Amino acid sequence: MLLSQVVNGLSQGSLYALVAIGFVIIFGTMNLVTFAHGEVYMIGAFVGYFALGVYHLPWPVALAAGMAAAFGVGSLIEKTAFRPLRGTGHMPPLLITIGLSIMLKDLAVVIFGAENRPVPSVYETTIEVASVPVSVLQLVILGLSGALVVALRLLLQSTKIGRAMRATAQDHEAAYAMGVNVHRVFNIAFALASALGGAAGVMVGIYYNTVYPAMGSTAGLKGFAACVFGGLTSVPGAILGGLIIGVVENLTVQFVASGYRDVAAFVVMVLILLLRPQGLLGKRLRAA
Amino acid sequence: MGLHAFVPRRENSLLWGGALAAALLLPAVLRSEYVLNIAVLAGIYVILAASLNITNGYTGLFSFGHAAFYGIGAYTAAILATRLGWGFALTLPAAGVAAALVGAALALITVRLSGIFLALVTIGFQEITFLVTLNWIALTRGPMGIPGVPPPALGGYELRGNTGYYYVILALDVLTLFVVARVATSRVGRAFVAIREDELAAQASGLPTFRLKVLAFVIATFFAGLAGAFFAHHARFVSADSFRLDETFVILTMLIVGGLGSFLGPIIGAVALVILPEVSRGLVEYRGVAYGLVLIAAILFRPQGIAGVPGIIQPRGLLARAAAGEELAG
Amino acid sequence: MMTRQFPLLTRALSLAVLALAASAPVAWSADPIHIGLSAPLTGNYAEYGQLFQRAIDLGVEWINASGGVRGRPIGIIVGDSRADPKEAAAIAQKFTSDSRIVAEIGDFSSTACLAAQPIYDRAGMVQLSPTASHPGFAPGSPWSFSIVGTQAGEGPFMARYAVQTLAKKRLAVLHINNDWGIVSKDLFIKAAREMGADVIAVESYFETDKDFTGVLTKLRGQKPELLYIPSFYNEAALINRQREKLGWTDVTMMGPGSLYSPKLLEIGGDSVNGLYTSAAFFPKDPRPEVQKFVKGFEAKYKATPNMFAAVAYDTVNLLAVVIAKAGTDRKAIRDELAKVRDYPGVTGKITFTERRDVVKEYRQLVIRNGDFTLYDK
After folding, report:
1. Chains contacting chain B through 3 or more C-beta pairs under 8 A
2. CB contact B314 to C (< 8 Å)
3. Which domain holds residue A45?
4. Beta strands B146-147 and B153-154: pairing type?
5. Which residues in chain A are closer than 8 Å to C238, comparing Cβ atoms?
6. Which residues of A touch B311 (CB under 8 A)?
7. pLDDT in tens, A24-58
8. Which domains does chain C have, with CATH numbers?
9. Residue C96's closest chain B neighbor by CA?
10. Gyration radius of chain B's alpha carbons
11. Which helix (H) or strand (E) holds C253?
């Protein structure tokens, strides 16, 4: 029972982690918070649904399509909404993301309709590991999340743009003064974060066999909760946070009450913020 | 002198008196119950935006939990009214005090955090409050909500039409705005602004910044609680889904579009953003899209808000100035 | 004078006039009679509000095509409430201030209906909800009516199905944590216990949850024979999918009529085979009014209607019948509505009790081979 719940928690947690990493990238590089991440995730999920469910393309293609769409939307948002407000602090960009969130959610209902769409199953089989049912899909998702994180790390460590991102995260004024095209870096960072969100959306759609316009609402909040484990700037911290929250939620369901599931995530978040705001693995983005 | 600096003072008291008189005569002009209802709603949001302005505007704190205090006020009033039979005259202050007590407790634990950390912790508090309200069935009836809250009554005469409610909310607005104006122009208000502008410097110059920040929360949450009590007796049915993070966003956007840190800002923002969704009902399914677009446009073109303090949102840093002026090569 | 001398001519002339009149298109010389519709057209419950709107539009189309009510067409004025109590109240203010509107249909959720109730009550306008099942709603005001049938009827029906028909003794419940879910759970459990069953576990989920693996794992540990799930069809589909993924196949699944929808099959796939449910509205019901509705809905919207569409369809037709008898005075409509007896709705016979809700009849259903079928045994 305990082990089952832990497995459940790790699967859900890996999806939270992907969303959380997106936030960390945005906050770490641009020092901004976005409340529209859930909607970018939803757009990715819908594109993935169309690719997989309507055009019957293989799921890796659907994943790529969802990520590409989210990347594009993210880049557009950054260019039109964040760039003009460069340097005006936290509030105005945050407000814009609130406006975007409202707009995109309702636009999705207008364009896609309000109903849940059925996403076809991928990897239906369930295996038994130590008498705990684990679905192959859960393993694939864990693997994929891991792969995306490794890819991200490679990007940050070994590519020119990655180095530019790290420099910008450390001190964007200095980076600018040194000739780094900070505007481009911000745009790519935001788009990249959005692509990760889109990936999470596609995987959630496949995992739960459904996508719908309101699906982004809670994803964003849980993503925030996960970020704080990394002091908002550490990618490994965000991953750890996502996994921990997933597990804590399921253990709460098992040992406390199902109604308090979400409370657990937020209580943990508040405790970390109060007791250790730099997070459990509080390091800066550059060392991630 | 810009809109942002407009505060009731002896010099412009004629203007404010005129505004008050106009407000008093409004029901005679507006005649329709439906339009009066919108006026009442605007009145509630004026209190909510103006009180949020104390923490988020004047003091520069990022509180995202305001709807939770609104809810605490509403539930306090509803519970006292339906279980103990208290009238509005008693539930109103009780609601304010309850919200302020929780606000003080929250502030004591959290104001040492700043910026995004404070924002996240208040979001966490907001969500936790919502979920606890939903689950604590013995106290709040959970998802069933609390129906049957009686309207305010004066000597046996119960408020029936919206005209009565309008005058009550107008009175509450005057009270709130009076307090806000006094605070804004007092030493405490200037201390709040000093904290917003540069907290370290404020500390260095001897201001008790911790206590001041807690005070800001207490004032803000007290008035949010009052608004909640009014809501309970007006809507007469209280349920947790009226007080979620979305509602905090509504109040925050009113404040920011109207103008953070100014006296007129919350008033303008509340009125504008209550009227907008009502008049755009004709857009039906595009209403939300239009609302979002208006918000985005408002922030892009006037980030400090309609009546906001221009300096509050000044592009800082050479990067920002570059974005505002020159273009980067490549 | 001429008519007496030429009776045949007169008859021919009369017939000719009648024929001409019948073939002319109906030109409305009168204003429409307006009915307000308050429902979530955007937001988290948009799916259900849009179903209301579609079913009502279909009903109105047919009513108007056959001459309208008292020679006037019906017009629907729509307000998007997002199932938000505050919006529903604002719309109520709008509708009651509009003298053209004679009655209101809505809202979807009980909390929205309850928030709007004092306004319709004070202004004196019928508030006819297709789906409000909060037991305090309809009795709360003489102007409030609900036709979905409270759980006071469906709960015991489902309990009988589970305990007596299917002979299950160890029951568990997983319900949505809103007012409808709580009432459904309470009434089911009460009836089931009275029939001698053991309810060994009760868990809830929050309306936006989509991951049930935690709570399903917990319930599985209690080894119930039957799991009753008062939920909407989207979540029910997910619950079943995840139950299958967990490999928990030795439990009987059952849910109330809210599950009745083609979407349950679409999203749930194979995992919902063997699920027991009920319906007051069943598209395969041979009654002519049901078939007419189902065929018309499918033709117009390319989808089979579910219970939510059906109840909305009944509300507008019911109002049309009542207005035809009582006229357009708001109070007269209310009084006539309260007297409705045995109206043949597609969701069954509608008779309002003195509490202004309806006692419905249900059918036992089960899903076999990817389709809803009547349970026979």
Report:
1. A, C
2. no
3. 18-216
4. unpaired
5. 208-210
6. none
7. 888 888 888 899 999 999 999 999 999 998 999 99
8. 33-149+286-350 (3.40.50.2300), 152-279 (3.40.50.2300)
9. B34
10. 20
11. strand C252-254
